[in-house]
Amino acid sequence: MLDVKEKFDVAVIGAGHAGCEAALACARLGLETVIFTMSADNIAFMPCNPHIGGSSKGHLVREIDALGGEMGKNIDKTFLQSKMLNTSKGPAVHSLRCQADKMEYSKAMRKVLENQEHLFIKQAEVSEILYEDAVDDLKHDGYIKNIIGVKIFSGIIYEAKAVILCTGTYLKSRCLTGEAITYSGPNGLQPSNLLSESLLKAGIELRRFKTGTPARMDGSTIDYSKMSEQFGDTPVMPFSFDTDPKDVQKEQVSCWLTYTNEKTHEIIRNNIDRSPIYAGIIEGIGPRYCPSIEDKVVKFPDHERHQVFVEPEGTFTNEMYIDGMSSSLPEDVQIAMYRTVPGLENCRIVKNAYAIEYDCLCPGQLHPTLEIMNIHGLFSAGQFNGSSGYEEAAAQGLYAGINAAMQILGKPYLNIDRSEGYIGVLIDDLVTKENLEPYRMMTSRAEYRLLLRQDNADIRLCGKGHEVGLISDEKYNKLLVKIDAINTEVERLKNTIIGANAKMQKFMEENGSSSLKTATSLAELICRPEFSYESIAPIDPERKELPSDVIEQVEITIRYEGYITRQQRQVEQFKKIEKKIIPADIDYDDVSSLRLEARQKLKKFRPVNVGQASRIGGVNPADISVLIIYLDSVYRGNSDEK
Amino acid sequence: MSSVLNNFKNDTICAIATAMSDAGIGIIRVSGSRALEICDKIYCSAKMEHDLKDHKPNTIVYGYICDESNDSENIIVDEVMISYMKAPHSYTREDVIEINSHGGMLVMNQILLLLLEKGCRLAEPGEFTKRAFLNGRIDLTKAEAIMDVISAQNNFALESSRSQLQGKMYEKIKSFREKILYQMAFIESALDDPENYDLEGFPEKLRNTITPLISDIEHLLETADEGLIRKDGIKTVIVGKPNAGKSSLLNMLTGNERAIVTDIAGTTRDIIEETVRLGDIILHVIDTAGIRNTEDIIEKIGVDKAKSKIQEADLVLYIMDSTSDIDEEDKEIISLCKDKKTIVLLNKDDLIENIKVTYDMILDMFSEVANLNVPVIKTSMLNGNGLEELKKSVTDLFLNGDIVPKQEIYITNLRHKDLLNQALVSLKLVIDSIDKNISEDFYTVDLTESYAKLGEIIGEEVGDDLVEEIFSKFCMGK
Question: Which of B278, B19, B287 is nearest to B154 (CA)?
Fold first, then answer.
């Protein structure tokens, strides 16, 4: 064999949602990057649901965008329907969700990758990661090995300073539909069967996870008259802060809502023993928060019905995705079960529902940078890290990509904590928690969600994106202007006092508001539920015309000031404990009053600060106080010595 | 770093564990891996041998502390009893030696110096307990309760601290937290899984949970004022004109019960107040020095000083001589008492023939000058008349009837009181949000806050400086 070696800075394994973001970030930061995919025709493929965003996931997409990622821009180009969810609730839980045209989404992303300077797409199965023993400098930092590249199935070596594992559900995957098992990746794509061995050999511990997807129906066999039509929003709000709202106003495609019934549940119950999960054939653990229909029937025995959304897969096909009814029951049961649902009585299944099982990383092996412990330069992102969902994957891909680049460039790592973004929550949870099932982002996981809104993701994170070099000066300066405009307007409204005169009382009365007792600021008026920034325009003649995103921030800032301030205080508390650093060379065996379980967990997860330690399962508050006092004794001793 | 760590772990520490006052006996405590070795260097048996090592753990041995560096013949510093508790069966779970010496300050300091000379380090305040904690002997709330037991000055304080140790308070706070947690979990579930959890009608259900919780906490806080007074006592100032009988009053108060000299952490030799017991209530009589040495603080120290003393006090005892006329000076003092709980003691009640001031005159004057309704007690320092009545008046002013600490939880710790107050404020904000029709997802901010603050009380939530705060209150040697 000829000695052919390809030289790159970064090798990304997998071109799903994580891989694409990782590769784009590295290439955009000027690093020569190769991205490996099993199929160049399936880049950024959506093997499950045909939508991007949704509750808390929409937040992730906005944050990816604020940091300079691609997902938001790509869905803005290719969506079929767009909706802001939870608008009846507070702004913190508003979430954007778009139906995607799967084919268009994939094609558009491929184009972005192909047109990206420094980025090369390679269709190949990576069979090995290559590494050497860490040199002394790295050993001192706790590394044992140093990554030097990857080998592909053909034997060709790609040298790289950093490797990012974004293998999704492809490692040793198998798909199950009842008793029928196929050894393939999602949607019949080729699995990656060799890499797991190499990872194990490198000392990485792997486990099996499972996830599932519902059937795709032939749209022409569905009777939509029995379902209720679900429309998109008008006007459409774009995902990306860069997208001009004008560009996303277009005709939208509808989704449809129907329900399961007792008959559906009866069929499932009668055949539950033929589900590979309940029969014990699947060893992998599935996501509790994205349950199969059989899980829902078992978990909620009194529920008479469950929601079923019928959603288009794209304009290239009439296939419809049956959201809410993922399953791994055998095909005969599937046919009978789906046909009990109103509107699906005569449906024909194009693609069966199936469960997919795959290798992924055991918890406790990740640094907060998403680098794998012990192996310098080996990063990982997405489902390989034990998460589920396109958005979760993309967020990690971007984060791992940036940090791999920072490592190579010798710049400080990107760090987003739990008070700065859902991405921070996601990363921290993946790094500190056992996560016995695929991890899904949820609103409830974010303690400081009143601050982590989708509407202010740019304000929260553009600065960090700018710092790492993915956000241009021009864009960043635009943001600074926006922030300034918000602050100025909030101040103006707080300082503009209106007297309790007859004219004002009349205005109050006309708007169904109680009369003014004393002079009041415009800001105080906006706080009244019956008023908004817009509706007080008649009594605010000095107002300048402002962009709608500025007005939105002004209104939220004023209206929820009390809550926001209180949450900010909680963040200050959080940061105090987060600042208590745990030295890398701490010997937990020396902290004798730690309980055994806590000691084992701390040794395994190697938290970088006390806050992180406190979030590790099995480490309780008493252990944390022990740790604080212990560190304090050490630290004080240290400073005394100086 | 590791060498520093070893120092911390390997240091053998010592301190005087008993009060820094000349008492009958005193205890010097030594803890650490070298405790036995170091103590043996300064210990001699009756046969003048260094044989401490040969004695069994957990026994007491008689002998001498000797200073052999001294050239003189008399090398014996003190005659002592030494107890040795072997790790881990000791307070700190390290080897601990307690030297029971004579209690004189000089002797104890000499022994301490010897220990330091032979390799001990002087313990930081609370370091013994800190070690007990770090070595897993006690948890944080126990540490706090231990501190309260140590500093308990009366039965009530002791009982309430004990009940905290036994976990009564823990159970109560835990039940509050469980209720809050359930509500938070419901909101979060509903946000993440709206199909299966419905928030319809939830705000009113939440109100029905939170409202009783608020009154429960308010009730606990009511006990706090009383509990703190019962535990920590009442800052009291005695005022009056010369010869009214101020020192006689103090003598009468202290005569009944032995005066206790407090040593507040860090101010060991600095006596700032006289503590006397009136039944089950403790009075800290401010600036006793002034009162003892001079007959008249108004005259000698000036009205300004009196004013500041009155400002600091929770209780003013205004003593009047019933045989001398009321004058402008009296009126001036009375006006200073305007916002304070005040008791007037009409003294020299025994000199019936000379009485110039009557009960009604005082009431009139107070309502005129200070718009104040005060209890007036006729006393005679000569025969002790009025003491019982004074006791009753103080009790009425500060406490609501009898307390049975065994049955109820009393908040006797300022940290707990503060945290309860913060939890209360947050719960009220939840009700406020419900009243204002704010969307359910906002409730979590304040629910979380109250949950966390309650958790800090029982150590289930790591508060910011909780740990340091608890240990810093310890005195030397504890």
Answer: B278
